[in-house]
Write a structure and sequence with these properties.
The complex is a heterotetramer, with two copies of chain A (about 375 residues) and two copies of chain C (about 325 residues). Chain A has 16 helices and seven strands. Chain A is an alpha/beta fold. A five-stranded parallel beta sheet of chain A has the order 1-2-3-7-6, sandwiched between helices. In chain A, strands 4-5 form a two-stranded antiparallel sheet. Chain C folds into two domains: about 180 residues, Rossmann fold; about 130 residues, Rossmann fold (3-Layer(aba) Sandwich). Classes of the chains: A alpha/beta (about 375), C alpha/beta (about 325). The structure holds thiamine diphosphate (TPP) (2 copies) and magnesium ion (2 copies).
Amino acid sequence: MTEPSMTSPARPTVGAPGAQLLEGALTVLGDEPTSRVAHLLSLPQELPLALFSAMARLRAFDERAVILQRQGVIGTYPTYFGEEAVQAAGVLALSNEDWLFPTYRQTAAVTLRGCPPEVPLLMWRGHPGGWHDVMRYRVAPICVPIATNYPHAVGAAWGAKLKGEKVVALAFGGDGSTSAGEFHEACNLAAVVGAPVIFLVTNNQWAISTPISKQTRVTRLADKAAAYGMPGIRVDSFDVFACFEAVREAADRARAGLGPTLIEAVGYRLGPHGTADEPSMYRDQAQAGLWAAMEPLGRTEAALIEAGLADQQQLEQIRKSAAAALFDVADRLAATPLPPIEEIADSVHLRTPWSLSPERLHEPKWISNG
Amino acid sequence: MTEPSMTSPARPTVGAPGAQLLEGALTVLGDEPTSRVAHLLSLPQELPLALFSAMARLRAFDERAVILQRQGVIGTYPTYFGEEAVQAAGVLALSNEDWLFPTYRQTAAVTLRGCPPEVPLLMWRGHPGGWHDVMRYRVAPICVPIATNYPHAVGAAWGAKLKGEKVVALAFGGDGSTSAGEFHEACNLAAVVGAPVIFLVTNNQWAISTPISKQTRVTRLADKAAAYGMPGIRVDSFDVFACFEAVREAADRARAGLGPTLIEAVGYRLGPHGTADEPSMYRDQAQAGLWAAMEPLGRTEAALIEAGLADQQQLEQIRKSAAAALFDVADRLAATPLPPIEEIADSVHLRTPWSLSPERLHEPKWISNG
Amino acid sequence: MQLNMVEAIGRALGQILEDDPSSVLMGEDIGVNGGVFRATVGLQQRFGDDRVVDTPLAEAGFVGAAIGMCLVGLHPIVEIQFDAFVYPALQQLFDHAGRFRWRTQGAYGLPMVIRLPYGGGTKAPELHSDSPETIFSHMPGLRVVIPSDPRSAGELLLAAAGCGDPVIFMEPKRMYRRGRYEVPEALLAGDLDKAVVVRDGSDLSLIAYGAMVEVAEGAADVLAQEGASVRVVDLRSIYPLDRDELLSAASETGRVVVVQEAPRHCGVAAEIAAMIQEEAADSMLAPTLRVTGMDMPFPLFQSEDEMLPSIPRVVATARAALNY
Amino acid sequence: MQLNMVEAIGRALGQILEDDPSSVLMGEDIGVNGGVFRATVGLQQRFGDDRVVDTPLAEAGFVGAAIGMCLVGLHPIVEIQFDAFVYPALQQLFDHAGRFRWRTQGAYGLPMVIRLPYGGGTKAPELHSDSPETIFSHMPGLRVVIPSDPRSAGELLLAAAGCGDPVIFMEPKRMYRRGRYEVPEALLAGDLDKAVVVRDGSDLSLIAYGAMVEVAEGAADVLAQEGASVRVVDLRSIYPLDRDELLSAASETGRVVVVQEAPRHCGVAAEIAAMIQEEAADSMLAPTLRVTGMDMPFPLFQSEDEMLPSIPRVVATARAALNY
Ligand SMILES: Cc1ncc(C[n+]2csc(CCOP(=O)(O)OP(=O)(O)O)c2C)c(N)n1
Ligand SMILES: Cc1ncc(C[n+]2csc(CCOP(=O)(O)OP(=O)(O)O)c2C)c(N)n1
Ligand SMILES: [Mg+2]
Ligand SMILES: [Mg+2]
């Protein structure tokens, strides 16, 4: 479950497919050891470990979810193995007043805002308790239809701006989402109205089985920002410190009234698209395996140790306690009662229409002579 | 009706709002007189006059249509006054084998492929005879919903390519259309599959009352091409020779297997959005009037005379006969019988379903006891 | 005061902007230009361009943005320029607007209104005459409301803006300038769920909505001359239906004709007919008949009167029901 | 040979690609990966990536492109990955696909098929279980076809590909792997307009389609044990409806129950009930009753069996009709 901790913080050999995409992408861990260490030491004291802990929690959730799926406790599950850095940085670089717009691939991001992990797990268990409290966490419901969360983020950011609040919105997305019309409409609208929004697009080079080369002809998704007159930033998606800087800078710009930013977090999908997907059907898994060295927890660990900010044991402990917190989660899931359908029907409208009233839900109750 | 023929071919004073947009746009007429003349003389002998004639026919149609609308012979009509150069060049730079995808603003373009002008006029008269023969002219039905014609053009071009035919497709559109998702999806798809398609976008700086500054934050629409990895060309929309070159080059590229091109034809909407629109509600019409000097027929006339390719009288004659051809068009429109609704209902499906059969169209015929 | 429908809508919008500082109007050309139908004339001047916002040409984008605005406490009212131009936004409406409250287990709603000028009868170009209410009423989570006259337009728009859930507010554009009628100076929110009996009668009920209410009333006049006492019910709420009023009309008159300009197959009239025969079968003296648009694209305008239910078609169908 | 539904669809697609050199398959992940449901497995290898094309993630774009392909003589068959993901393409389908033949005054059609895996019962995540057939059948110009078993899937898909007009071909994904049944080695095109009586009966007719046919048959078994002779009709064509078969069922059995998993309001069952009472009122011994999904978003999967019509619900409703 845990990765070899001897990973180096540096970037991988160019042997990995598409590794050249990392060239020119913002990096901290890929820098010279001295500047890498200097960067980590320049950060607010708690931050490096906080980022690591957040990633460890995300990892523990993901690993547990995969197990729960195999055990039949939850249904199909989209693992995000390897994308913890982007998510942790995306959440921690913003304040809790800021809004997040996750997709199916960031369902645990809300746990970094304090939501119990049972909640997103209930979602994958097909249970309505899986919908977290949107207003409490300022995290939108997870979004399944690709790219449709981008306009929401623009609206929230723009709305906050209209109200004179200094709130930023961040939308997550993938390389595939950039082909969809709503990505375009959202980026364009955001730029026109100067919405304080961040489009954080993880280019993991795959949309299910579709490689980035069949998705778009440009090799750098960040170049798409030019079409909207907004900055496009490229960052190493496996480098939590670089991701943090990129998001923080974009948030600063946004708060300063300078409008939206597109961030392309460059990487590679280390795992399958989801538990129902079989990548060996469509890609060379041995080749793909060359990217494993970039796995962000191991890299961060190595860097933290190198900078003297933590020792191996301490980090191991963080990972272990993150995992431990989820050992009995299956019991908690099982213990969560399913609300009756009448209650679910009653949740659709503020004033429930007659057709969704308990008496009308099942035909025999109201059919004459039934 | 006809413009002062003493117009100069050159570009207007910068006093016109947004005139700086023309900077860097491809031009022939805006060049030095010597190179301008040289260019015209370098063209195939018939071409300059053919372009002028095509524009004259488009102008005559447009002027007649506006009159017919005032007379109540046709309904709301979207005039394209000032956009004749883009349309004439778009049609003439391609072969008759190539496909055109017009919007509501290019309804007469099909007449340059031999379709009688009554046909598009019948469209605005609300008569089904207004649908031209799509396969005969290789011109798609006019497209009202903004940007939805772009994917069609991509499909036609891509399809031709898959079939091994050297056919090009050209889609017309406006500045407003670039904000719509389907513009993006079409451009991206075209670039990925290398479809031989030309996106010919007229930036007339207005989408009804919405100025380009509220439409997008970039000032050059052609810059959007970078997001797709295709070339973006800017051309003076009032310069028929420049437009011709731009389209021809894009078509050559497409036929050579080099994929799509985005052409931004830069200009200004000289007239209202349509006959129901009142531009003085939302723009300074006096300022807007400074663009009138760019009116493309006058400019072309001046250039043709300057190059010794025609004299004033000859050109006047071309305009007059174009107008004359439409003098009695109202009678022809009136003489076109309206097909009965049963016939229209029968045109929806190849095998007409019972619900659209003549007996079922009007209730009383089939209702029991009716 | 005497207002036509579009003026009444403009007034209601002004009142909403005045009373609710969180309300925002969005749409294409609604600012300086006041909208292509002039419903928002003067509002940007009055309330500023932070409250009355021109958007780029991107219906999915700005309907999606309206959803996001709700999250931060705004109450957006979105104008779609014409009926058919809502189609690019259907994914946002079906996948998000209609599902938000359910996704918060009932806790939070999206207080947004989509204003949609719709329907035929204005001699407009293609795709400017659609009547897509069925698709909104079938896809869950959306309320669908259609006024028929200036006063109901104003009152229902206020109610829609205050209802706390997304409302597709469809405005029969053919009625926009169909004469001025009395509208109270200060509008009060109407009842969003209620159909209204616009004229009482005991022999037959005509159920209609939007521009078809006027047609139904015209038909009722003709039938009255033939001695038939005809009730006319203005549906107003397309989803949810006012079941009580519909079943009363059915059981009290025993004969029902539903009029809709949308295509027939799976239209609102089908739902009403199905419901009446399910729940009031014993009272019915005749089948519930439908006068509807045809299952075809709305014809180019020279033939639009053939598509649109007319007084003669309604009268003929009503006679069939009366003689059943 | 014995095939399940998804294999039968794959076979039919292979046969189409083989017989019609103008046919092209398009969609997300249909090439190397063979589609998320594996319907196209092996086809790209067999026919090349010019015939079986992976598209970018842009449903409006590639459905629009399919329309353009038709103009140059191709016959595209588009796979949409899951039901709800067709919504971005609705504008293309409503504004263009459904209107093209009418826009050519009947002269030219678009020979395209949209394959849409749909419906619940597979314990899938949100927005992977919708049943949007109503919206396609209401909006003019589209044919809507739904098979219920491997053989009808293969035969109707062939018919759809050959019909000359756009067909929304909805595949009940819950039936994809519901056992293998005999399918002819060489498939022949089925009849696109015909409903099929899957079992005869004289006391009551159950009308169903897609995955609901199996449920209706299960209910018919139960009712048979109670002594009721129940006819089961598989609708197959959602638009146009097979009026003759439906009216025969109604008038010959006098009692009808329609089963659909889509929400009730304005569903296909409403249309059928409305039509039967309009046209067969005199033969009916009971109202036409409906067993449907509820007017709410398809619930997260733990509750999906509450949404989906079940054998007990159909039986109970049938009993109500029988005892009427
Ligand atoms: C509109 C829409 N079409 C199709 C799908 C099915 N689908 C789910 S994930 C996915 C690929 C997304 O790829 P990408 O955007 O790169 O994100 P990733 O999964 O790699 O994180 C597809 C096609 C969907 N969810 N929504
Ligand atoms: C999807 C859609 N939304 C709205 C409209 C209404 N509409 C018609 S023309 C137009 C402006 C188009 O501007 P532009 O693309 O610049 O083209 P132009 O009219 O200037 O030629 C609008 C909003 C439409 N036709 N389609
Ligand atoms: Mg991806
Ligand atoms: Mg324009």
